[in-house]
Amino acid sequence: MSALLGPGMTEERLVSVLGQQMRVNIRTGSGVPLVLCNGIGASLEVLDPLVAQLDPDATVVRFDVPGTGASPDSPMPYGFPYLAAVLGRLLKKVGIRDRVDVLGVSWGGALAQQFAFQYPHGVGG
Length: 125
What we know:
By secondary structure, this protein is an alpha/beta fold. It has helices spanning 48-53, 80-93, 107-118; strands spanning 10-17, 20-27, 30-37, 58-64, 101-104.
């Protein structure tokens, strides 16, 4: 994360990971970061009402999967194991190297489960 961002500040940018450009939105805060995974075809804004109800001091990470929202299309087909790997590397690139909590909605729930399966030591507080 950017060292210039204070608690409650939000940063949004495109991050290149494993050949993918991913739009990521990070609200800085404290505690274990919460990673939110969207339903298929939904941009990260679909979770705005949920984020608004969360503790304003919580770190929240949202992203658009390739081909959704402001993330460009993928150059090749992809599945859950690949997306979970992309998410793991994305978190490292934005400076989140410790444990996270992960929550998914619909299709994003399957991605959250795959991420937890691939990174069992990085999930849960």
